[in-house]
Design brief:
The complex is a heterodimer of chains A (241) and B (359).
Chain A lengths: L4 E5 L3 E5 L6 H17 L4 E6 L3 E6 L6 H12 L11 E6 L9 H8 L3 H10 L1 E7 L6 E4 L14 E4 L3 E5 L2 E4 L4 E3 L2 E5 L20 E6 L2 H12 L13
Parallel strand pairs in A: 5-13
Antiparallel strand pairs in A: 1-2, 2-4, 3-4, 6-7, 6-13, 8-11, 9-10, 9-12
Chain B lengths: L3 H4 L2 E6 L3 E5 L19 H11 L7 E5 L4 E5 L2 E7 L2 E6 L6 E3 L4 E5 L3 E7 L4 E6 L22 H4 L7 E3 L11 E2 L11 E5 L8 H9 L2 E7 L3 E5 L10 E6 L4 E3 L7 E3 L6 E4 L1 E5 L4 H5 L6 E2 L1 E3 L2 H20 L2 E2 L8 H6 L7 E2 L4 E2 L6
Parallel strand pairs in B: 13-22
Antiparallel strand pairs in B: 1-4, 1-11, 2-3, 3-10, 4-9, 5-8, 5-10, 6-7, 6-9, 12-23, 13-20, 14-15, 14-21, 15-18, 16-19, 17-18, 17-20, 24-25
Classes of the chains: A alpha+beta (241), B alpha+beta (359).
């Protein structure tokens, strides 16, 4: 296990780094400290932001200071285990299709696979939501099978459509918003991962798991129409424990 | 049937200006969802504007960039205050347009048109309304994050015809008040704490960062400022496993040209960050515009904390000295009795050191 390292983010935050890499054991420690600090709420804590291998601790420098906040965090580190996998399991529909996922052919060819084989292998995995970031609800999910690893596009797209299912490196995601993006687009999810009308607008949380369920174009269109009319219940995507 | 919302007291946008948004001090507590904090680029100006109209300092107001909107008063009366380098004027039926001063309150009547003009000398200025705006908070905040359509008005800038509902439909009568002097923003280098990844840069790069002049490039918005200057070399790759960002983080992608992140920054990023602007200097950073020159000086976290505390004291002192507006040409007796007549360094009456240049 790597030594824990504190790095400084100005006078309002610091990172607690548990390692250098993107792996489940390191991230489990991040999530464990995140949960502990949420429960302990030391005075002056504003929020904690979990990422792959570190937890950013944000505090109010007028209510506390670096020394006191670091001491409070260190107290929570003693006997810290790993977060028990309490996250939800989601089944997200995806239409793997050259029109909805314009990089599907190119990426499959680069990997020496047919488009169908790439879709099959992508849908075979269960992915862990390491963190959210980039845009509200954008989940960094891993780990993609090693034989599916591709570097990001050399030319990022200016506009990636909302719902695009994408992959880069050992990670995969669903873009919750239309946004710029440099990942390879291999399909599209018809239901929104962000919905401002829900009490918690973001469907996925760090620590959740995701399986992709292939749907054909007709089913995609039907689900998209249901979502557009507001009749789709995202809770139906939650898999039974 | 008319929805009650549509009949409520409001300010209606008669002309939208270029880019005005509703902002408070930010939407904290939801960055784990990837939700950016957003909030006022110059929180000191927003806080002072709110203090003038008697609001809690974190009340949402209108942040105006470039050119402000014209707002029609559709309420019995409303008291407003603008803080920041923005021209404003009043158009009242049957009268010639009248310029209004910033840094003080004004009571406007039904039918008045408040014209917020050009913002010059800084990127933003603020308008606060007594009682505040009656929008429904989203995740505990009224800040607007335009990229994801989050916040009041569908998360959009003020558009033609938009209605800003008012909590108070009739502002109480009473003396107008003013700031004794406009906020004085320090000049000199922006102060930073090195890190969190200064060890991902060569020693020369850190030295160059702290000793060189930079300029704000054309790509500058609420998300961040691309800086132009000497390239900063990494040791190895510029990429790190994405980790958390704050307003003031200075990330350096492979090009070596730093990006100073502002309030609409994404919650996490994968470029090494050489330093972080201290919280006391964020209002200055938020006021920067394309073409502005800047440089950096390193301080310790302890120094940054002390600077911030002194800044808060200076701000509190300034708010305590808010006073009734004097008739033009009158003798300022109140000031004669209460303000230090020697050098302005120590406010004897209030017993606080006064360090105006910290703002």
């Amino acid at each position: 296990m790597d030594a824990i390292r504190f790095t400084t983010v100005g006078d309002t935050a610091f990172n607690v780094e548990f390692g250098e890499g993107i792996d489940r054991p390191t991230n489990a420690r991040v999530m464990a400290l995140h949960a502990r600090l949420k429960a302990a709420r030391p005075p002056g804590l504003v929020e904690t932001v979990p990422t792959f291998r570190s937890l950013m601790v944000v505090y109010d420098p007028l209510a506390t200071g670096r020394r006191d906040m670091q001491a409070a965090v260190e107290a929570e580190l003693s006997g810290l285990g790993t977060a028990a996998g309490t996250g939800a399991l989601w089944r997200l529909p995806v239409c793997y299709d050259g029109e909805l996922g314009p990089d599907l052919e190119e990426v499959s060819a680069a990997l020496g696979l047919t488009a169908g084989a790439l879709a099959e292998r992508h849908a075979a995995g269960e992915y862990f939501v390491y963190m959210l970031g980039f845009m509200p609800g954008f989940g960094y999910m891993g780990d993609l099978a090693p034989e599916l690893e591709r570097p990001r596009r050399t030319e990022p797209r200016v506009r990636v459509p909302a719902g695009s299912v994408a992959m880069a490196g050992r990670l995969t995601t669903v873009y919750p918003w239309e946004s710029p993006g440099g990942w390879h687009l291999i399909g599209r999810c018809p239901v929104p991962l962000y919905d401002a009308t829900r009490p918690s607008p973001v469907l996925l949380a760090a620590g959740d798991r995701v399986r992709f369920e292939p749907v054909d174009r007709a089913r995609f269109d039907a689900l998209a129409a249901e979502a557009a009319s507001g009749r789709f219940d995202p809770e139906s995507l939650r898999a039974a424990p | 049937m008319t929805a009650p919302f549509l009949t409520a007291h409001c300010l209606t946008v008669a002309r939208p200006g270029l880019f005005a948004t509703i902002q408070d001090l930010g939407r904290f507590g939801h960055q784990e969802l990837g939700m950016p904090v957003a909030g006022a680029l110059d929180p000191i100006a927003l806080r002072l504007a709110n203090a003038l109209v008697g609001n809690p300092q974190g009340t949402a107001g209108v942040e105006v960039a470039l050119l402000g909107p014209a707002l029609r008063v559709e309420a019995e009366s409303v008291r407003v205050a603008a803080v920041g380098p923005m021209a404003l004027s009043l158009e009242r039926e049957g009268q010639a347009p009248t310029p209004l001063a910033a840094n003080r309150t004004h009571r406007l009547r039904r039918g008045d048109l408040l014209v917020l003009g050009a913002v010059t000398g800084a990127s933003v200025a603020y308008l606060a309304v007594a009682g505040g705006l009656a929008f429904e908070p989203f995740l505990g905040s009224l800040s607007t994050y335009v990229r994801a359509g989050v916040g009041p008005l569908g998360g959009k800038p003020l558009g033609q015809g938009a209605r800003l509902p008012l909590v108070l439909g009739d502002a109480p009568e009473g003396a107008e008040v003013e700031l004794p002097e406009p906020p004085d923003y320090a000049t000199g280098p922006l102060r930073v704490v090195l890190g969190p990844q200064e060890d991902r840069f060569t020693e020369e790069a850190v030295e160059t960062f702290l000793s060189s002049g930079f300029r704000v490039g054309k790509e500058a918005d609420r998300m961040g400022l691309r800086l132009e200057g000497p390239a900063l070399a990494h040791r190895g790759s510029a990429d790190i496993p994405s980790d958390g960002l704050v307003t003031g983080s200075i990330q350096v992608p492979g090009s070596g040209q730093p990006i100073l992140l502002l309030n609409d920054h994404q919650t996490a990023g994968g470029y090494a960050k050489i330093a972080t602007v201290i919280s006391a200097d964020l209002p200055r950073a938020g006021r920067l515009r394309p073409g502005d020159a800047l440089s950096f000086r390193a301080v310790t976290v302890e120094e940054a904390e002390a600077i911030r505390r002194r800044q808060e004291q200076a701000l509190a002192g300034m708010i305590r000295r808010i006073r009734a507006v004097r008739p033009a040409g009158g003798i300022d007796l109140d000031a004669l009795y209460t303000e230090n007549l020697v050098s302005g360094v120590v406010d004897i009456v209030n017993g606080n050191a006064d360090i105006p240049d910290l703002l």
